[in-house]
């Protein structure tokens, strides 16, 4: 099993053994906007979900705190997200990036999410300490140094929604990690970048959780 370690603002470090990893999808706060996005993706060949929002279980070992992501080809990209981490005695909030295989996505979104890691930050906040201002937190992503995503958590379904979903499924247990789904991506920026950086910022404290990684091409297969 994968063990992650998160540093909290007070300097304490919280180890978490990931037992269940879940990716939210089509998780915009406005489901009318989500429906429009589903229609756009369908035109690109991405299969439409039967319900929204979606919840995709992925292999726990894909939760990683890494600075390098291997890719089998040039059509993979990240997605700026936040993540909930259930610990033995609390729930943490951190920054995350769901690195997705876009070629595989047209065959199945769930499959595409198994083909790359969910990269998580090394620092986190206690959810209880930011819950009263969750919608003001900002999420920004850079692809090769250019801003490709920028918004607030008000654009996404809140952590409280996903915690209710976890409780209903008896998954709100230590070792569960859930990624939020993502905010819109700028169409004029090349998402197939060689590096990704994501920041989750609390304007009230000016504190920022961040992650950054490069995309490393694997050697050509011999077959």
Write the layout of secondary structure elements.
Elements lengths: L1 E6 L5 E6 L1 E6 L5 H13 L10 E5 L4 E2 L3 E4 L4 E2 L2 E7 L4 E8 L1 E2 H4 L3 H6 L3 E3 L4 E2 H4 L7 E6 L2 E7 L6 H10 L7 E4 L15 E8 L4 E11 L6
Parallel strand pairs: 3-15, 5-11, 6-17
Antiparallel strand pairs: 1-2, 3-4, 7-10, 8-9, 8-15, 9-11, 9-12, 13-14, 13-16, 16-17
Descriptive report:
This is DUF2848 domain-containing protein. Pfam families: DUF2848. The longest helix has 13 residues, at 31-43. The chain has five helices and 17 strands. By secondary structure, it is α+β, with helices and mostly antiparallel strands. Strands 3, 4, 5, 8, 9, 11, 12 and 15 form an eight-stranded mixed sheet that branches. Strands 6-17-16-13-14 form a five-stranded mixed sheet, with no helix packed on it. A two-stranded antiparallel sheet has the order 1-2. It has helices spanning 31-43, 102-105, 109-114, 127-130, 159-168; strands spanning 2-7, 13-18, 20-25, 54-58, 63-64, 68-71, 76-77, 80-86, 91-98, 100-101, 118-120, 125-126, 138-143, 146-152, 176-179, 195-202, 207-217. It has one domain (2-217): Alpha-Beta Complex (Fumarylacetoacetate hydrolase, domain 2). Helix content is 17%, strand content 40%.
């Amino acid at each position: 099993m994968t063990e992650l370690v998160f540093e909290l603002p007070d300097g304490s470090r919280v180890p978490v053994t990931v037992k269940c990893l879940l990716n939210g999808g089509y998780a915009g706060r406005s489901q009318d906007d989500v429906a429009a996005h589903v229609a756009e993706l369908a035109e690109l060949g991405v299969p439409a979900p039967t319900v929204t929002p979606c919840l995709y279980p992925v292999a726990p070992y894909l939760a990683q705190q890494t600075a390098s992501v291997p890719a089998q080809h040039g059509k993979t990209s990240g997605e700026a997200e936040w993540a909930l981490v259930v610990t033995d005695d609390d729930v943490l909030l951190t920054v995350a990036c769901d690195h997705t295989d876009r070629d595989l996505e047209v065959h199945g979104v769930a499959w595409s999410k198994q083909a790359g890691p969910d990269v998580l930050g090394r620092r986190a906040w206690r959810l209880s300490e930011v819950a009263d201002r969750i919608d003001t937190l900002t999420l920004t992503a850079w692809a090769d140094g250019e801003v490709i995503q920028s918004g607030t958590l008000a654009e996404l379904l809140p952590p409280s929604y996903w915690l209710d979903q976890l409780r209903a499924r008896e998954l709100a247990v230590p070792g569960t990690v859930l990624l939020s789904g993502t905010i819109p991506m700028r169409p004029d920026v090349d998402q197939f970048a060689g590096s990704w950086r994501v920041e989750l910022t609390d304007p009230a404290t000016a504190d920022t959780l961040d992650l950054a990684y490069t995309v490393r091409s694997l050697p050509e297969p011999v077959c």
